[in-house]
Every structure is written in structure tokens, then in C-alpha cells.
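pinned: reference chain
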Amino acid sequence: MGFLGIGGTVSGREAAVAGSKIKVKVLLGSPGLLDRQVNYLSLDSMLEFSRFLGRKKLAAKSFPEYFLDEAVKAVIAALEANHRYVTSGEMTILVKMEPRSVAAEFFGSPLHAWATYLSDESSPGLATIRFSPDKSFLKRFIENESVLEQLFVHELQHHADVAFSVIGDAVSKRSKELLEGRRLSYGGWIAMLEILEIRNEGLAAFASLPTSSSGVATGIFCFFFQSAREFTGMFEKIPRMSREQLSQQHKAFFHVRDYLVGATMATTILARRLLAKGVKAYIKPEGGNEWFPIDRIREHYGTGRLYMTALQKQGNSISPEAIGQFQATILEGKEIIAELQGHSHLKFLSEYEEACRELGVAPIMSREIYNAVKLECHRNFIGMLHKAGIPPDAALR
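pinned: its C-alpha cells
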């Protein structure tokens, strides 16, 4: 373990996971990046930062080293808690910290707006994560350090998805071939792409929502119903959008909601299993003060934001029973991810709809909606080809 230095300036951190051939490297793409972002903090955040340094007994100049060290620990904690992220006997997890201006094109999620996973088929033992620790992220970090582990769990879930599942890539590749061969409408392609993204980003967001190395620091899953309903409403408009509108909405509207919609669907699957197995979990609407037993989920499902946890406090403490229930919840969540790992977006939709049926709630997205949108796109496409004098058998039937 050690720091990497250039001209006396700390530029990175390197460590090996004990008892393995797994290396973790965290590199600063710009000297002084962390120092600059600290200087950009607001006055209130700067005061909180000063209190943070006091609690940690750190000098301000030591913060970059501390942050890099914590980043390495967070990656290792994520790997140790989720063995499916270890995809090779010899692995290197490379985290490149860069200014937002360099990596801005990769960001957009409300949950994880600071990082992206980059896949490299030629290097299966390499997981590269680009990360922008801007002032917004640093503010969250000094409030709750577990946000680092949460972020890396999200991106490493993408790494595992790419390593263990070829279905998503196969679907994307085939759809692009059909699109280029004028056998699939652009709207149909966008519809398929968005449902794929719901599955991919949703599972990653779901995996990271309750993350903490201590096991009890967060422990809360969320249902993001407002974002989900906005997504579905716009999704049903896809057949009536121009290609230019679709491209714009994919980047500006759908992408920032894929995470939240998918996480809501995965959390619904989890709620169904917890209820079936008798795990003592609880739900609470946003803004409410009371936690209700999970068997009352149908009363609150579908509007605003809903929280779910198995960590019920007794006064200021958490009982051993509650911690046990929480651990059962996390294990169940990992099983869901493992089961869906090698399956397509359609399997994800089917599992979600089945969970809704058993819970007695109305789904916010379904295969019926998906198929109806694709069919309307296809009919519009056939009509366009007919007007252009192109034989209908040139289109996907």
C-alpha cells in the first residue's frame, strides 16, 4: 500500500486486496484537483468541512491524502461485500479522478452524478471508473462518508453486468444492425434502449441504495414513483416524436430517470420477497413521521417517494433483531441481482409485473406498455416506407 507522488505532490493511491491478486489504483487526473474543489465549497459547507477535519484530527493540507485513502478502502469494501464484482483471479480496479469539465459527457444521474464505468473487452481483468469529486460530491462526503462505497458499488455492478451477461450487448448489437438496415424504426430502437437502461442502471442503483460497510449506516431502499410516472408518460409518447426529439429526450429526460425507475422496480421485487418470507420490513411515505409494516404497501404504492427499511430504531439504538432483519434484506437483494444478472430487460419487466400482482399494486411500467409503444412505432415506420415507395418486406415484421 502506498501513495503515488509526482514532484512531491500526491497524485494517487495504490493498494492490494489482502490474500488476492487484486489491485486497486486511485489516480488524480489533475494535480490539486481536490484542493480546488474544497475551495469552491459554500460558506456553510466550508464550516461543515472544518468541523469534519476537527472530528478526523486532520490538517486541511492532509485532506487529499485522506480522501484518496478512503476511496481505496471504499473500493475494497465493495469488493469484499460483493464477491460477484471479482470477475478475474487477477484484477485491477482503476479509478481516475477528473474535473467535471473533462468527464461531463458521462454524467447525469440524480443518484450517481459523479462516475461512470468504462468497459474494455480487450482487458477483462480491468475495471475502469471515471470519477469527478466535485464540490457537490465533497459536500455529500463530509456529511456521510459511505457515499464513496455507494458510488463504487454502483459502478462495479456495471462491471459485473458486462462481465457475466452478454444478453444486453447482443440485443443492442442486433437492434443497431436492424436500424442500420432500415428494418427497425428509430423510435422502436429508443424504446428498447430505454428499457435496457432501466434494467442496467436500475439494478446498479438498487445495489447501491442501502450500501454501507458497517451494515447499518444507511439501510434504506427507495421507491421513486414521481420520476417513474414521468418516465412512463414520456415513454408512451415515443411513437409521436421526431428523430431529433427522441435524441434530445434520450439524453435530457430518459437518462436521468432510468436509474430511479429501475431502482423502484427492483425494490418492488424485493418488497414482494420480504413480505413472502416474513421479514419485518417497514415503509414510510416521504414527509411522513410514521413507519408502517410492509404488508400495507398497497396503501402507499404509486405516489411521491416511498422509503423501505428493516432497521427500526428503539430509542437511539437498533436492536440485534432489526440488524438481523436488515442483513436478511440485503442478502435477498443480492439474490435478486444474481438471478437477473444473466437475463434480459424482458425478464426484468416480467419479474416486476409478477411482484406487482402478488403485492396487489398497479405496475408503473409493463411489457404491455412496452409492446404497444414498439407496435405503434413499427406501424408508423411501415407507413413512412410506403409513402417513400420502399417495399414493406424491407421492414421488420
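why pinned: The longest helix spans residues 243-277. Residues 38 and 134 are 8 Å apart (CA to CA).
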